[in-house]
Amino acid sequence: MTQIPQNTTGTKLGLVIDLDICVGCHACAVNCKEWNTSGHSAPLPDTDPFGENADGVWFNRVHTFECGDGADSRTVHFPRSCLHCEQPACVEVCPTGASYKRAEDGIVLVNEDICIGCKLCSWACPYGAREYDGDAGVMKKCTLCIDRIYNENIAEEERVPACVSTCPANARHFGDLGDPSSDVSRMVEDRGGYDLMPELHYEPVNKYLPPRPKSTGYEEDRPRRLTPIEPTNEVEEAGGLFRWLDKVLTR
Amino acid sequence: MHPAYSVIIFTTFSGAGYGLLFLMGLFAAGQWIEPDRWFGFTGFFLAFTMVISGLLSSTFHLGHPERAWRALSQWKSSWLSREGVLAVAGFVPFGLFAIGWVIYESHDGAWRLYAMLTVLFAALTVYATSMIYATLRTIRAWFNRHTVRVYLAFALWTGSIWFNMITQLFDLHTPGIGMIVVITGVLALWLKRKYWMFLDTSPSWVPPESATGLGDLGSVRLLDAPNTQENYVQQEMGFKVARKHAEKLRRWAFFSYFLVPWCLAVGTVEAEPWLKIPAAILAVISVMAGTMVERWLFFAEAKHTVNLYYGATDS
Predict the structure, then answer these.
(1) Smallest CA–CA separation between A174 and chain B, in Å?
(2) What pTM did the predictor assign?
(3) Residue B217: its chain A contacts at CB < 8 A?
(4) Could you tell me the domains of chain B?
(5) ipTM attached to this prediction
(6) Res. A226: pLDDT tops 80
(7) Does A218 score more than 60 pLDDT?
(8) Do A65 and B78 touch (CB under 8 A)?
């Protein structure tokens, strides 16, 4: 059903992404692709993979933004995937019931057996989380690695989404954001985790942690800012032979 | 938004078809027109052809057209589903209304009731179509009060130009139909101008600072996109061509959907048949071409919030 179900357990599984730590290595995107191309929504198509018009379905993409100006500017790497919203318009607009939100854990999924490929859900998503699979004629999206997090055939520490398990900087965290005492909820509380585009009222479950403030000025325990040295003209300083050589060569 | 031809053709033709059915129902219910068999046959043939071909064309862009019937199931939440249900259910009153007019040549009793239901279902179906767009919060150009009004006005206006043509062909034209053409044309012109004024003056919807939540650090610009070639999201939601030519295309649309058909239809009401019939046919061709340009702009000028993640500076 495409009506939003009453959450029966209060569980809201999702991700917390730390923009202070992310180094923009794209490992989460690559491991997501690797796992999911043989997982729940397999295969994730790649068209013309080595050609000029490489295209394909990815559930997770890393954007890099520049923020602020001059000396105060920052480069922020920004991984973007489905936010498993509490008010997912992508689910409400679906005419077939293929898009649905699970009552027990809040994960938003697509039933590919009944999806007609009308693409309206991708129009309704402000975050660009849904990508259409032209080969299969159905819409695909992040499953929060539903085939990992409940998978009893893999080691317990592996039961997190592929993007979380692979992040070398530990910038991605998985957990229950409906439980205020969970690690992820506390992290959001401590660091001021926020929603993307809150004014659209999609109420995303996934949260982003802002980059920490940049240190300014001199502090005893931090590396000092280096003062640039005025460039000198080495040739002018050099005498005799080199000066003569420079003259000859620049003619 | 990428303007898919299947959806432009669908909304233009089904809109005109429902507009024509609306007016035939209205004039039959009011008993302002004779239930002439061949007039009715021509009207229903054209309206049904437009509505059905429009509906079929809308299935062309589906990944799985054979599953289209499933789209009738989620009418409780989805306007696309409601549109499908109304489009299918409408054929019951339309069919009965057509039987009364074409076979029994009657607008009385129960046939009159079916005419009224035809008016209702035609209006509701176009309303549902427009609500698919008007409820998408991701697109400022659609998520506003103008979208529904413009869709309804264009269905009525294109329908009235078709209705005008058929009444001229059968010499059943009345001053009432002339009035409908005059009024609905001005209505479509006025509402579309208001829509374009809204589009040109409405403030930015969502800025990149809100899309990323990084506004505290200063202005936010894309430095590196995640992919080198355009992906599905950019192809579907990132169309830019029309915005460059929007002014010119709006002028063409104005001439073609309003000025030419309005003058042709209104200016030749009292003319000789050799003049007014070709004029009425030309008006139909012009209004349909103009409405397709208008519909193309409706998609092409619409900016989706997702582009903020791919370098757009406003939405």
Answers:
(1) 20
(2) 0.91
(3) 67-68, 72, 74, 76, 211
(4) 5-208+233-310 (1.20.1630.10)
(5) 0.94
(6) no
(7) no
(8) no
